[in-house]
Amino acid sequence: MSERYTIGTLARRAGVNVETIRYYQRRGLMREPARRLGGIRRYAEEHAQRLRFIKEAQKLGFNLDEVGELLSLEDGLHCREVEEIAGHKLATVRDRMAQLTKIERLLALLVQQCHGNRGKVRCPLIASLESETA
Hints:
With 134 residues, the chain is mainly alpha-helical. The chain contains six helices and no strands.
């Protein structure tokens, strides 16, 4: 028989809080095991794997609704749908990276302008942020 864990042990093994596990159960991302004699639920390795999946998907930028959608397609018969979801997420990430690159360039320019600004001249960064062209 495989090893079984209390919710506290499962949380420590997965590096999450007990309340996180309960929240995922309420959201339908994890099933709750039946209570054994003594009223204590025992979690299996499959629960730890599910927690790892959720956390890794979040690291890739998937929100919990998207994680739930991915989990609903985990039977191995929906690779095309998973590919579509992941492709959409990739496009979103690339758009965000392009936005961040623009922000980085603008901030670098403004910092450079501030660095060269001496005396009682208005700060270029503050002036830029106050204008509509920032």
